[in-house]
């Protein structure tokens, strides 16, 4: 039976009370529990399987929460959660949602921080230790960081400062010989030599930073780990305990759940497969937008590799999530670079390639691009180098609070000189990629990869299919039925002008990126209102059909002043829709543009903005978020009716 | 005579043509030129004096611009500029403004990038080298990075990736044994051992990253450097050339220009004094706002150190610029931590201290906080840890394009859960600091340190002196004359409610932070218009006096809905003023708030926004920027009149 011993562990005290000889059995029980949980629920099973013994040993030797353990990224904290009163969440399928996939102080006093981005644990632990020393405390402070995380910028800053700070601080380096995909970088040869030599080889990266050092070869031997942690427990100076673990230990290579859902991903390595496992229920589902559009992008680029030496795809460690399959990477050769978990380097690296004449394409998640804010501004935009950034996972979703895509428009859209494109179809996406990586483009471009709302609309045929545009034939003023006014903005890229999907009157819906399908549903509903007896009777006689205009802005870096001004002719109300934070986002720029216009007719146009509140959300389903933010057909139409009535 | 030989150098070819024996004399001539230039013009003289011989040797051995030299931060590129056709800028006082203090491709084909932030040179060079290898080129790529810059996060990512990449890449580590202030961190002991051992000591940080390594003890011996660079010139793999130089070589310790202008800064060390030298003409001027308010802040904190062990001041390497004097640091002891150039670590470190119960205060420039965007969001705001950030140098200024403060409001103000305060007086600033570091505050706070417009207004008595507020007595609805409506927002901090400086009618000026003095001038001019015969006659009879309202928002993280709504009663026009980028900034939020209001009376209120265009600016004088952006009394009043007339 699973969970026999585990169910008796309600906190570290129960673990301390066990006989040492019981620990291996407890670890095996946890291992079985994790594998079952992975089948049902998915998650970062691989890293947790590797960390079972180390986590048991940490809680055996130290006294949490008095002693403070900081898990880097914290996706490997499942075992920690099991040992600190939350085992039921992993044993009982009905309780799975009672815990997040990351540490969270709101969930338990044993969780020091909410963490989901890599490399910060050492710096955070330095802060905890500093305060302890200022207050004259005696608790122990432990940072647990993987070899993959170790390649991220801030981790090095932490290593460098830890030694200078002094005092009790234990840095457990969980070396499982892999990052999300393979480890990348020169230091991994050093780590390999340390492993091969039992921790004695020079040069030693950790001692080079001034840190004391211990090595534990069998990082899945709980007895050895207890001994090692006990030895360093009361150290009066920072010490690295380098433990060699096996990611995914206990998960057969042939286990179905270790197979990627995406069949085009080769199954030779356990790397990505063991990093994040999809639940069994996800098998055989069609690809989601990230992988679908990502694979299309890679296919387009790959077809050009032979003739364009400067076309280089850069992925800071998370290729699989973005459709950069192992098969593609193998074929791409020198045209593909995994820089490891190093978003900042990746952006500067891309800028360097572009400065020398290349056309780099850097792909990662919206939430991870946040780490590169300064490089986006300084190395890329200020230098106006033609790199293309593929922004995956931008927009609202039911993600946890550490991986939200709600903030990308407000981040990218306010950087001078950065062209920000928001394609609303596969064709437009690939056209934009072809243009941004061509010699026609002379500056940095971010393309917000379409999300599932677009993919679903394309699959169901919801979106009109006449929206194809080619780079050779950008939208021109003449093709836009609403206005004959010539463009007053410089057409520095083919999507500078907004695309009028449907020209109507009274109300203009400007639906950015992923919200275009919502905009289409809104104008369809408005147009059909009189034909809909129920609606007409509920809302009364004012509920006349409205033939509203629908506009696809296609980008969020500049405003199309010509189109915006032209709307004043036949419209009373402009509505902006965006699947991101309103504050600092795109719609507010539209509102301010009208408000500040010198022509009183144009300035008088009412504007309503729909988007997300400035807040963090944690695993709130998208439908609930849309309801909360008024991003539903009913709520949008209700606000439109209210404002037209006035 | 200065510049005899230097004037004959119009590019690297002229340097190549010199006899090797002439190089030391050229170096001495450059040294004299730099010292004279520093007296007249100021600048990063110390680092350039240390880099004279290395720069001459680089241009002697390599063939720029075919070979690409990337100067990290690029403040040490003066000698490079002299050798690449720009010597006149340093020799002729009238031509000093023809060059920036940093490299810039618009200035010369020998400058690879615009750079002003640390640590990115290796990553950029990796990109240049990658593209060379993709294209089958044979040019050499060189990154030049100081030991101080080496502590910044991205530099480590670069080191780690350089070795993995392979190919010709030369990383010159300019080790002058100091950062902007002292070097900080465990790796500097390793560097010291390398210096002491002639480059042979283990552990070697560079070889630990997988890089080849050379050491040059006398980094100011041009002959030795030419030999070292020649030896590695055609390397087929990345190699570090570690050169030991002397910052400020040739600048007597007793030289007047090495003395800090601020008399309260001790003069014992050459560190800050030699980092940035003020021109002689700056001597004996009163303190600017950064140092003035910074010193006040430190004095307040210092008075509490004895009783508050958790009060810790953190400076990532630039204490002197922000009034954190050497004398203060010496007295502060453990209450002060210089983390080196590690902004990201500094923010996570602060969050750790705060989580453990401390009240950390992190001080740096607006432009450098950009590097911490992800830590601000994840480690700080998502974790809601009560750290205080002192944001120095925020706002418009005549700075170069790599150090602009125009983007901070748009960055900080859009992060959920981060309280953003914009004090407009010394008293308010210190009250805010006292509150944010007290137990009354439970979350992260950024305080935008007042700029020179505020300091000048305080010195000249322009601002009304009844604006003092204390933490114990926050602004309440009852104290606000415009509206009796009770506050509908939660007063989560004493400055949530806007402060009504003057209650008038028709026009309400909301002047954020540093623009409050401008707002005061606007309402004064509007009020005096009829008394001013010239104005009345010029503008005609419509130019009646207006008793406009002036509001000090005090913060830019939330909107005071009560006050904003109340303005609809007696006002036709709301005007926002901010000294930062409009797009994504604060005023657009005010505009959108009104536009989206459900009460048609409130929604009908016109709003005009004044602030900066989304653009990079390079050494444009502030008065010119204000003129460009309409941030002058005349332009603001003209737009107000236009819109009232409508």
Describe what is shown at a glance:
With 646 residues, chain A is α/β, with parallel strands linked by helices. Helix content of chain A is 38%, strand content 14%.
Can you put this structure into words, describing what you see?
2 copies of one chain form a homodimer. The first copy, chain A, is of the alpha/beta class. Chain A has 3 domains: 239 residues, Rossmann fold, CATH 3.40.50.970; 172 residues, Rossmann fold (3-Layer(aba) Sandwich), CATH 3.40.50.970; 172 residues, Rossmann fold (3-Layer(aba) Sandwich), CATH 3.40.50. Chain A has a 6-stranded parallel β-sheet with strand order 7-6-8-9-11-10, sandwiched between helices. In chain A, α14 links the parallel β6 and β7. Chain A starts with 11 loop residues before the first helix and ends with a helix. About 8% of the residues of chain A have low confidence. Chains A and B meet through α7, α8, α9, α10 and α15 of A and α7, α8, α9, α10 and α15 of B.
Distance between the amino and carboxyl termini of chain A: 67 Å
Strand order of the largest sheet of chain A: 7-6-8-9-11-10
What CATH architecture of the largest domain in chain A would you give? Answer: 3-Layer(aba) Sandwich
- Estimate the global geometry of chain A from the Cα principal axes: globular
How many β strands of chain A by DSSP? Answer: 16
- At the first level of CATH, what is the class of the largest domain in chain A? Alpha Beta
How many domains would you count in the coordinates of chain A?
3
Q: Which spans of chain A have pLDDT < 50 for at least 5 consecutive residues?
A: 255-273, 465-491, 536-541
Task: Identify the most extensive interface between protein chains.
Answer: A-B, 120 and 120 residues
CATH topology of the largest domain in chain A: Rossmann fold
Oligomer: homodimer
Q: Biggest β-sheet of chain A, characterized?
A: 6 strands, parallel
Percent helix range of chain A? 25-40%
CATH superfamily of the largest domain in chain A: Thiamin diphosphate (ThDP)-binding fold, Pyr/PP domains
Query: Which class best fits the helix and strand makeup of chain A?
Result: alpha/beta
Question: Quick check: average pLDDT of chain A?
Answer: 90
- Number of helical regions of chain A: 27
Q: What is the percentage of strand-forming residues of chain A?
A: 5-15%
Cofactor (chains A, B): Mg(2+); thiamine diphosphate
GO molecular function, one term (chains A, B): 1-deoxy-D-xylulose-5-phosphate synthase activity
Pfam families (chains A, B): DXP_synthase_N (PF13292), Transket_pyr (PF02779), Transketolase_C (PF02780)
InterPro entries (chains A, B): Dxylulose-5-P_synthase (IPR005477), THDP-binding (IPR029061), Transketo_C/PFOR_II (IPR009014), Transketolase-like_Pyr-bd (IPR005475), Transketolase_C (IPR033248), Transketolase_CS (IPR049557)
